TrEMBL record, chain A:
Ranges of residues in domain FAS1-like dehydratase: 21-134
Transmembrane segments: none
InterPro entries reported in the protein's UniProt record: FAS1-like_DH_region, HotDog_dom_sf
Pfam families: FAS1_DH_region
Organism of origin: marine metagenome
Name of the molecule in the record: FAS1-like dehydratase domain-containing protein
Amino acid sequence: MTDIDDLRSKFLDLEFDRTGFVIDAEQSAKVAKASGETREAFIDPTDPNFEACAPILASLASGRRLPIDFPALGGISMDGGKAVACIKPVRPGIKLTGKTHLHDIYAKSGRSGRMIFLVSRMQLYDESGEHLATTDSRQVIRERPDK
Amino acid sequence: MTVQTISDVVFGDELTPSQPDTSLQATRSFAQAVGYSGSGRFEDHGKARAQGLPGALVPGIMGMGFLTSMIHRWAPRGKIKHIDTVFRAPVLADHEHTVTAVVTDIDDENGEVVLDLTIKNEQEETRVFGTATVQLPST
């Protein structure tokens, strides 16, 4: 059985990926409209307050999903959820840097066995180093009984 | 029902439920825009079933979009500071789902409201749940 405390001590809070992004305004507006958004600041790129919508921020993927030396846990991996914290509006067209680390590792046990949760946190910064937003991606791995 | 300021918000209030567009056309459009298209799992029921899925899916982050859209309609001047969504089970495309939210906390001092969020299918099964913190002006 995977030692969760050992994984936490070795991997939490260590940056393992740095990726650059530029969000396209039309793409963000299309995502917002497809989700039923009606606020002009999210669906009209000509709006002076136009900003990237939460789902497009949540879609930004780091170059690596896990640290390069993270052990293979086996089992079935699923997308367990996403979170977005909006600190400042993210304007499309600007250069963003996403810095990613493992924010949390924990396990839950149920009737069908144990599930391991890996929470990757990406912090998004603009070119001046201002922190604009944070996204969390929750990966769930259903552990194999023999692990 | 909409709210304009923090004083308009009542503990326990339920936002007006909505039935989002989960059609294949909508999921396809969303998947293309976020770069999820190609595998068919969000675009084609047959291709999704061939991958062992019960049918084409609504992308998880599209569900987040349904929820943020509902919050923006409820609070036209509100700003979502944080939203956390847990993908408990697949949301199937072309099936009716209902998006709901309820006010579970009000912080008058900081002008913040906490909402509990859910997306349920036709069988009233929760597929997505989560929370959001929304900031509202005082005047």
